[in-house]
Amino acid sequence: MNEMRNEFGRRFPKSGEPIVVWAPGRVNLLGEHTDYNEGFVFPMAIDAGIMMVGALNGSQEVNLYSLDFNAQDSFEVQEIQPSSEKKWTNYVRGVGQQFQLAGFELQGMDVLIKGNVPQGAGLSSSAALEVAAAVLMRALHGWDIGDVALVKLTQRAENEFVGVASGIMDQFASMMGRKDHALFLDCRSLDYDLVPTPFEEQGYAVVVANSRVQRGLVDSAYNTRRQECTDAVAQLQKDLPSITSLRDVTVDQLPLVNALPEALAQRARHVVTENHRVLTGIEALKTGDLESFGKALTASHHSLQHDFKVSCPELDLLVELALEVPGVLGSRMTGAGFGGCTVSLVPRSKVSLFEKTVGEEYLAKTGLQAEFYVFNASQGAGIRE
Ligand code: GLA
Description:
By secondary structure, this protein is an alpha+beta fold.
């Protein structure tokens, strides 16, 4: 961190004493494609994230420097437009604009950025960038705005400025995560509960495997899935007039879901059963029953694979190989899908074996070199002293 402060001083010699903030990425343990259906999610913030060092500069200009891209960019606060060349800056620009739309007066700043969340891997590097920018801007200007309002603001930046119709899970996890806890979030009310993760004390690790498949189709397919969920609700309302989202449909009502046209039945069935898995999975976790929690993870994968259809052969293979390693309790794709990562619950004593055997088999079958990370549940975004 001192290194970052020194680097900031070298790059922005005229700036005053800076503030340092950190925002983590996330891995979602359970509850996939449920957030925009007003359902339940269960992510944890990870010990990889974005660090930003910044100070107001007394001008109307925001100057950004990314150490990861070795790239500089500047924009005027009076007229914030998306950049087509330096897309990484749009997360910061978008957050700045959303503050303005919320009535805050944005001033010029100098900001140095460095991160270690693998990019394009479904671990929310972009949400971390947005949340870090928001926390930094709030601190530098001394604005009075609460954490949940900040989460909503960053989600609007993603939806309206960056143009990705994502739900609220990623930003929420990055902001509100807590060390050694996962976050049970009700995406309708935004009520949340921090649930202790007993993985380490029971001898297990959360191992994330990056398929290294570029998530090319993800934005268009994501929007299609959202639309299909909306369409399913419209059709189900004929029988269930009081529902407003798939969140309102219970597992007892699955016969009605199964009667929908096939694609809609599949999408809706995933969401309904996934919400149920989050609730039962968390109950199991609370009683220390990791085995049942692991089974919920694997069941979630199969539902995403066969019903929601957002997996891909490489993710399916990673899950299959993971489950062949002795002692692994569960495995699933995590994030939006179509590439990115899987998450598995692996005995700590078997992590090296897991990385070796899954990595080698995956390479032999796909020609791709998977990457592995062992993440701990971490503290959400904030100022770093
Ligand atoms: C992406 C989105 C989230 C969520 C997941 C799928 O990560 O940003 O809002 O919808 O996909 O669960």
